[in-house]
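Worked Example 4.2. Consider the chain below.
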Amino acid sequence: MSIQIYNTATRQKEEFHPLNPPQVLMYNCGPTVYDYFHIGNARNFVVVDAIRRYLEFSGFRVRFVQNFTDIDDKIINRANETGEPWDKLAERFIQEYFVAADALGIQRATIHPRATEHIPQIINLVQKLIDAGLAYVVDGNVYFRVRRFHSYGELSGKNVDELEEGARVELEEHKEDPLDFALWKAAKPGEPWWESPWGRGRPGWHIECSAMALTHLGETIDIHSGGCDLVFPHHENERAQSMGATGKPFVRYWLHNGFLTINKEKMSKSLGNFFTIKEVLAKYPPSVVRFYLLSAHYRHPLDYSDAALEEAKSAVGRIREAVLSAEKLFELIDPAIAPPSEAEPSAEVAKFESAFCEAMDDDFNTPRAIAAIFEAVADLNAWRLKLAQDPRNPALAADVAGLINLVHRLLGVLGLDTLIFGEGKQDVGTESRLAEELLQLLVKVRKLAREQKQFAIADYIRDELATLGIRLQDLPTGTIWIKEKE
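Applying the procedure from the previous section yields the following structure tokens:
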């Protein structure tokens, strides 16, 4: 099955055919860096990262661009509030983005362009629109003529004649039409500015993304993504500017994720009902947050609650325990029975990968893909117990090892493997080695106590270890221990 993508522009699923396979050109609207991004923003970054990973897993070479909007009204206003220079404020929150994104396992983009690094390209693009009659200058401001671009509204499904002046329409004097939007803004006293043919000023929000996408990906790109709140006006305007300047199709597939809500209401900074990613990561490990954000289909709304995060925490714990228990089992059986890690998986194992890929091919259906992983985990638990009772069965050992490798690989496609199994790991120094040796010693002491029918002592060791987050599992081949995540 080929990959199917729901295209916002056509409002239907379409078979994915990049312009120049196996290369995929992909642009995602990044953060406006005036604050920590919130958990709703994180949904977009995590979802798009998982999609990018799956495209690469499927054999595509993805050139991925995600920008930083580092000049904007919000940045200027925040800088004025705090007294911090606007450029220092933007730089600080760019670095904070990377801290949180790295923690969530979000891969760095091929390039992270900044709007302020593209002022010449922005000016050139605005001039092209003026030359084409699609833009005009008023008192140092440059506006785009919305009604001159005849397919305006096709992306968002809006009728230009029905658009009313409102919160999403810029109301400024001297515009030819209330619907026209700013490409270049004349500098106001105390604001940052750059020289331009129209006087000192700064770029409008929409033109920044057009210039960065055209510069780093070319005139036609395969996938443009972002939150559904960007469909109008940002992406509608971006499309109009880019196509107006080049005369060529701008984006082949528009991909938008649904809102993260709280009490069924959109989470946003403007409404004040949001949690920053820094706040959420202080309460839950990154693996849990990422799992939660992928637990619903990306186009559907996802409601935020502690209960939902706790459910994700439990799910991550079940996966982790199943895999670690199976891996530790191989420490107790004859090493000759364990198959090589590169062994071809059996049909019983491979079916889970097929189910996973079928789900992801269907418009990146991560909840179905996760369900396929849990089906593999269920079999892993069952087969592990059988192997513990029949430790010299090479075929069974091969299937258990195959499932371990498969679960790791599929979790890796979703960006979860390193987070689930890498969190909490410390450098293997003298102290950590000593702690593990002491733990193994306690397991041996408990075994001796049980052999001598001193069950009270054995139970005491088990229970005390449990209070420290160490859970023992008694198997026919011996006892293994699992450290539960903090």
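Residues 165-170, 424-431 have pLDDT under 50 and may be disordered. Residues 428-486 form one domain. Compare this with Example 4.1 before moving on.
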